[in-house]
Amino acid sequence: MVKIYTDTNVLHYFGEAFRTRAVPPEIAIELLLAPIALLELLSQLGTRDAESAFAAVHALPRVHNPQRCGVLPWSDDFFRMCLFKLPPEKDVMIQSLNNAIVRVLNATSAGELKSDGDRMRAMMDAGKQQALADFTALRDKYAG
Fold first, then answer.
1. Cα 36-31-50 angle, rounded to 5 deg
2. For the residues 129-135, what does the mean pLDDT come to?
């Protein structure tokens, strides 16, 4: 079977579709998670989509294999490994995402996670701005 990864929108759909039912184990083992989709989902806990994001996180154990969930590398690590044949950098983000997911799974409502979602949104926005600055600098270096 082919491995399939899902984006943030699909995770929202899974939150609805698998609120009480589970994906069959032979399919769950084939599903991968993209760390950026998890980060986006967690950041939505501070938005008007908080309830849907909360449901999506709570559906994760029913959709993905909790013992062997595959996680895609960050895009910068992917490029490091594929284009430059370099090893991935030390991963500190996956454990942080895992801790955040566990916190959401232990929460009883989306409302109690609003400040966490706000912080995650700020972190994600800062990362986007840094990526923009990096790409702009790279463009300017090669443009002349």
1. 45
2. 88
